[in-house]
Every structure is written in C-alpha cells, then in structure tokens.
Amino acid sequence: MPPPPAVAHGKLPDSEKITINLGYVDLGHIDLMVQEGFYANRTDFIRTAIRNQVDRHADAVRQSVARKTLDLGMRVFGRRELEAARDSGRPLRIRVLGLAAIARDVTPELARDAIASIAVLGALHASPEVRAALADRTE
Length: 139
Description:
Shape: elongated
Pfam families: RHH_8
Protein name: CopG family transcriptional regulator
Order of helices and strands: HHHHEHEHEH
InterPro entries: RHH_8 (IPR041088), Ribbon_hlx_hlx (IPR010985)
Largest sheet: 3 strands, parallel
C-alpha cells in the first residue's frame, strides 16, 4: 500500500484509519451512549475505550517496550541516517511501537544496505518499492 499523499509532501499523518466489525448489540450500545451524550460520536467512544485499555495495562506495556527495546512514538528514517548506517557497516535493527516512516528519497537499494531488520507495532510508511525491498527483513 502506498503511503498517504501527506507523506509525499513532507507531512506525516497523526493517525491511521482502521476498520473493525462489531456485533449489532455492541454497536447499539455505542449509539445509545452517543445519543445520551456520553460521547461525541462512535469514534470518540472507540478511542476512549482503547485508551482505557492501554492505561489499564500500562505497566505491562512499559515492561514489554523496555524488554523489546522499542522506540516509542514516531520515528522517521531519512537518507542521511541510512547512508551513515550503511557506510559504518552497522545496519539498523529498527524496532518501533507507533509510526515508522522511511523518507521518500530513500532508494530500495539504500534501504536494503542500511536496514538489517524492521519490526513495527503500529504503522510503517514507506514507498511500495522500499517495502518490497525490505519484505524479507520485516518481522
């Protein structure tokens, strides 16, 4: 999947769209809570529910992030950083919880030379060519 147009213009989006399937009764409960004014809309309810679950498991998540040595948040890998990794002979082991983005000016060849492995819990934004070049290195 190609990165969103915003990435091509140098701006990264602050969210990723997902699709979920819900049972009719669960959906009805959400609509009732929206109608009663507890939430602004369905999205507000779902975001709040997700945040509550993340908060509920925050200690376990923090321990996992530390144990797995994950970068937390948004991480952009640019041409200069990848060239430096390639030139040093120490390819990167990218591990991100959040958003990992590989700059548009990074060629597939540079990505292969500079990235030993890539694991992203969240979203990876990269050109289709770079994604293909890293397919065998994606965890």
